[in-house]
Amino acid sequence: MAFQESGKQRATRIQLDYYKKSTYLDRTKSTLAMLCLIAAVGWMALVYAQGEKGQAVFSRGQVTKFHAAWNDNCAVCHSDFEPISKNSFSMKWLGHEAGKNLSGDARCESCHVAPVHHSSQKLESTPSCGGCHREHRGLDASIVRLSDSDCTSCHANMEQHLVSGSTAKYANKITSFANPADGHPEFKLLAGKMSDPGTVKFNHKLHLTKGLSRDPKGKPWTFSDIPEPERERFGYKKGMDLKTAIALDCKACHNLESADANPSPGTFANMPKAVHSERAKGGVYQPIVYDVHCKACHPLSFDDSKKELSVPHRYQPEELRSYLEGFYSRQLMSENKDFSKPREVFPVPVPGKNPLAPIVESVKKQVEAKVSVAMNNLFLGKKTCGECHFEKGDTKSMNPGFTRIPGQIQTGLDPDSKAFQWLKDSRAPGKEIVWPSIPSLWMPHAKFDHSAHRFMDCASCHADAANSISKNDILLPGIENCRSCHAPAKFMSGVAKAGVNHDCVECHNYHHGDQPFMGVGAAAWDPKILRTIDQMQKPIP
Amino acid sequence: MLIRKSNFAEHYPWVLASIIVFAMALIWFVFASLGHSEWPSGSSLPGFTFGVMGGFICLFEFLIWPRKKLRSWRIGKVSTWMRAHIWLGLLAVPLLVLHTGFRWGGPLSTTLMVLFLVVIASGVWGLVLQQFLPDKLLKEVPSETIFSQIDYVSDLMASEASRLVKSVCNIKVDNDDGGELSDDEGRHLVVGAVRSTGAIQGRVVVTASLQESVPDSKPLYDFFNEHIYGFLKNGEEARSPLAKSIRATVLFNSLRMKLSPRAHEVVAVLEDLCNQRRQMILQSKIQFWLHSWLWVHLPLSVALIVLMFVHVFVAMKYW
Predict the structure, then answer these.
(1) Is A323's pLDDT higher than 80?
(2) Domain contains B35
(3) Contacts 24+ apart (CB under 8 A), A379-384
(4) Which residue from A18, A41, A503 is facing B306, i.e. has the nearest CB?
(5) Per-residue confidence (pLDDT) for residue A293, from 0 to 100
(6) If you average pLDDT over each of A44-48, A108-112, A343-347, which comes out highest?
(7) Is the dihedral of CA B173, B175, B176, B178 positive or negative?
(8) Average pLDDT value for chain B
(9) Would A33 disulfide with which of A92, A265, B189, B299, CB 3.0-4.6 Å?
(10) Do A23 and B147 touch (CB under 8 A)?
């Protein structure tokens, strides 16, 4: 009988519950899945257990090195479920009123008291601290190097962002610097054809002419004309002929720090450091100081018989007169031995009569005579006060039209001027020399770093300086001059042009307040709360 | 899942939709970055939107696991799920990269992105393998059996071959319970055999009758014990020369020359069984490559989902 396999027999070749049996592939997969689940949950549990220290795990990146102490402490800057930027779209659905000030800002302001940008800007147009200063971009990232859009969000249409009733002081629409069509205007001083507000007569052309002579055939100003200690700093080298004409350049007067002035002993070296700091950042030129830059050629000599004598600078006429009276009184006292003799002639004073009166009167007359001569020398002499300064109220002399004589060189005081008359009677009360008022910063709403441009020839930007004969000339370059470098890179005949930074923050600060140097503002330099190092590194309550 | 010209029409709507969404996302992203010195971050409106979309896609992708586990629920066709899994998963890559603003971020976000990219890469690797390994399996493993039953079937094959050889070699054959075989079960055995009809080939179950003993068949018995039994039972682990097809042919031919022609039918059955066993070895290897990418894909997906929820919470808390 032939064998016939039953269905049961065939079925047993595959186990009926085969689908319930897992393979090593399934088992490994499940085991690894469980391990990954445990690892993920365990990691987070560990982070939670670590408290503050563990929070760095959640950071989206390291904060800038200036805030690195709080890298793993979110609560120093963040408030729970509150956006760091009040302009965030999430404000509303995180339960906050759109545009309202955030508690997070107070945390920033406890250290950085930043003044408002403009009092006339709308509150909702004023971003929160974190809205512009974006953190978590790495230790070396800058949180003040903002993109143009942070500025143009308002400046592209300023009127919309001003409180009602106020008008825009500046261009209503500016969208970039590089392209003139984008609205950035010419610098205000140049666009308004303003004149130099400084009140010191200065002829750039004369001072940049070799020999400093108005007449090309005239006697040049040579090293023999200035005191020996000053010669080296004006270019004298050992062995040179003292009759060599002096040739000044820009840095003879414009120095980024005191060392640039090549000080000579006895002059600059003795200057107060507050006037000329030794370690200036170099962004802004140090002020022109008479003692450093002018005195060598313009000594304040007052006595023709003793040229080496000079009065101190920065004295007003009244003070100078007092100084000279004292000086000559002492001189007479020391020269006339009679003044120091004992009072033997009049052993018994006659009542009502001053026995010294005749002598005093004589001395007074002598002193007065000497002082008058000295004052005349100082105020009417060619190389003294009147050479550079104006009398207060002498509007004619200070009038831009006065000193600017086309085709001629500035010549000093007009004999018909009030100043000339005033000098004849310098005792009159209220007479005063006008303070120079040379601006320490020409563009108060911008920042410019001269040290970053130190490799450039001064004339490439200040081309007019060498031909300027009037104190009224503003020698700033125009905006197009800046744009020749600070614009998007372009290639012309295979040569790269421009390409230097041209974003808003390259020249502008937001929190300038009313600070002339465009810093973060005086308020930020004097915060309300002062902390110890330990307190600083803890969260702000 | 196979993606072929022949079935691309089913994928086409998903591909098109993914490309359109990606293009729109990219345009929005670029537009939002104009005038900014940096790409929009994850907390910007476009960045956040892409993050939400990517997050929901990740969740959906993960749901395919319970969908497979709970087959009986029949929530949508598995093929539809797979197409959505593939194309939405690929769409999530650009969306989540845009969400990051091309920044790795801190430890958590970096871990998330690395996990995500590895999960995607492993998924793509698995998809690539699925394009040709099933073909290879079909062509080169006609005696394919259920993967989990390979060991069981191998044991059966070894047992059946043993009974066959013992019967031919006149050695008393016991049943599995240790008792003597009954008449019916003792005279027949069931073996798998590869059969093909036209282009179709497969493994069928055939019945072989136990032969009368063949004289001088000791070489068969020795060969079986030395090479065949171990190979059938343990496969590659037996380190048998029969694991190589050419070597096996040589050995079996050599064996035939030592045996009476009456035993050649049995040798043919044994050779066929060894051939099937080699195919099972190949099947195991193919199955390994077909499924082992899931060792990376699934476990890391689990970690990704857990950490994604943490990321969402922390992002909301410290916005």
Answers:
(1) yes
(2) yes
(3) A379/A317, A379/A423, A379/A426, A380/A413, A380/A420, A380/A423, A381/A301, A382/A412, A383/A297, A383/A298, A383/A299, A383/A301, A384/A298, A384/A300, A384/A301, A384/A302
(4) A41
(5) 85
(6) A44-48
(7) negative
(8) 85
(9) B299
(10) yes
Could you tell me if residue B3 is inside a domain? no
Closest Cβ–Cβ partner in B300, B314, B316 for A36 = B300
- Same domain membership, residue B173 and residue B84: no
Q: How far is A522 from chain B (nearest CA, A)?
A: 29
pLDDT at A541: 54
Q: Is residue B1 part of a domain?
A: no
B319: contact with A, CB 8 A cutoff = yes
Tokens of A468: 């300027």
**C-beta atoms of B306 and A147 within 8 A:** no
CA–CA separation, A41 and A43 (whole Å): 5
In a domain, residue B2? The reply is no
Question: Could you tell me if B309 lies within 8 Å of chain A, comparing CB atoms?
Answer: no
Residues B190 and B218 in one domain: yes
State which residue of chain B sits closest to A82, comparing Cα positions. B319
Domain identity same for B76 and B182: no
Residue B195 confidence (pLDDT)? 61
- The domain in which residue B173 lies consists of 147-287
Share of chain B above pLDDT 70, in %: 87
Tokens of A465: 């300086």
Taking only the tens place, the pLDDT of each residue in A118-133 is 878 888 888 888 888 8
Is the CB of B94 inside 8 Å of chain A's CB atoms?
Answer: no
Per-domain residue ranges for chain A? Answer: 24-56, 59-146+518-541
- C-alpha distance from B143 to closest chain A C-alpha (Å): 13
State chain A's mean pLDDT as an integer.
78
State the helix-helix crossing angle for B45-62 and B8-33, rounded to 10 degrees.
Answer: 150
Bridge partner list, A183? A176
Interchain contact, B37 vs A146, CB within 8 Å:
yes
Query: Helix, strand or coil for residue B305?
Result: helix
Determine whether the interchain pair B316/A57 forms a contact, defined as Cβ–Cβ distance below 8 Å. no
Question: In chain B, which stretches have pLDDT less than 50?
Answer: 177-185
The per-residue pLDDT for A408 is: 26
Please choose, from the candidates A438, A437, A392, A442, the residue with its C-alpha nearest in 3D space to the C-alpha of residue A417: A392
**B184 lies within 8 A of chain A by CB:** yes
Per-residue pLDDT at B118: 96
Whether A60 and B42 lie within 8 Å, measured CB to CB: yes
Q: In the A/B pair of chains, how many CB contacts fall below 8 A?
A: 136
Check residue A410 and give its pLDDT: 28
| Angle at the Cα of A270 from the Cα atoms of A267 and A273, rounded to 5 degrees | 125
C-alpha span between B193 and A137 (Å, rounded) = 67
Residue numbers in B near A62 (CB within 8 A): 106
